[in-house]
Write a structure and sequence with these properties.
- The chain has 225 residues and is an alpha/beta fold.
- It is 39% helix and 22% strand.
- It has one domain: Vaccinia Virus protein VP39 (Rossmann fold).
- Strand 1, helix 4 and strand 2 form a beta-alpha-beta unit.
- Bound molecules: S-adenosylmethionine.
């Protein structure tokens, strides 16, 4: 059980230290901006669902900014991070080595294939991954992730809603620029609930309202014991 000082809503995630450990200036700048977008307040909202012991995997972990922050704050967890981009994974591993975060390992590869053979997890989370996946693979991907959760485990998905329109348009432009032309596929909360309901777990939806114009929504699915 967490102590009062590291209760999920009181944790100050070590963003400064983690961002400062990226060697390349451009990546440090990107992570600095990303840390501002999903800063302490939003990471606490996500982090309240990440257990303090057990196996935790982030799918689509990018440069490992959040996985490293969460792993550093949870020394009794074993973390894994997976991303398609091998360069990002190399940076993520460099940072964990530099900071001596020894409860995390990173893997370069397609998350859709990765989940097929992963060990059972206590928690699987993904931050802005699902809208980057080919839509026809998402159903199977979510189902397979769910199968690899322990009873009582949690599937946590933070994604971007397609409403309100002006927020979606803002995020769409940034996504297209960042991915050099890939078209993201944003879903409404209704579409996510339709996707997640057949799993048979209890679904909690958080609208992560923010002053920045991002339509963040988090879906948490509790697997029955
Ligand atoms: C918006 S970034 C989010 C990264 C990280 N979760 C964060 O919040 O900073 C989306 C990430 O998904 C990764 N990605 C896209 N398709 C993927 C796939 N099929 N398997 C694994 N990662 C993928 C991209 O390489 C990118 O790093």
């Amino acid at each position: 059980m967490p102590q009062a000082s590291n209760h999920p809503f009181l944790i100050e995630y070590p963003y400064r230290e983690v961002v400062g450990a990226y060697r390349a200036g451009a990546i440090r700048l990107y992570c600095h901006i990303r840390a501002h977008i999903l800063r302490n307040r939003i990471l606490r909202e996500v982090g309240q669902y990440i257990p303090f012991a057990g196996r935790v995997t982030e799918l689509g972990c990018g440069f490992g900014l959040f996985a490293n922050c969460l792993a550093k704050s949870r020394s009794d967890c074993v973390f894994k991070g997976c991303d398609l981009n091998a360069g990002r994974i190399q940076e993520a591993s460099n940072v964990s080595k530099t900071l001596g975060i020894d409860n995390i390992e990173f893997h370069a590869g397609d998350a859709v294939a990765y989940v097929e053979s992963m060990e059972e997890q206590d928690c699987i989370y993904m931050l802005d991954l699902v809208h980057h996946l080919p839509p026809d693979q998402v159903d199977r991907f979510i189902n397979t992730s769910w199968k690899h959760l322990k009873p009582g485990g949690l599937l946590v998905i933070k994604d971007v809603s397609n409403k309100p329109y002006f927020k979606m348009a803002f995020t769409w432009i940034l996504d297209v620029l960042m991915t050099r032309g890939e078209i993201p596929y944003y879903r409404s909360p209704e579409a996510f609930i339709e996707l997640l309901s057949p799993l048979g777990g209890r679904i909690v939806v958080h609208y992560l309202d923010d002053y920045l114009p991002y339509p963040h929504v988090m879906y948490v699915v509790h697997k029955p014991l």
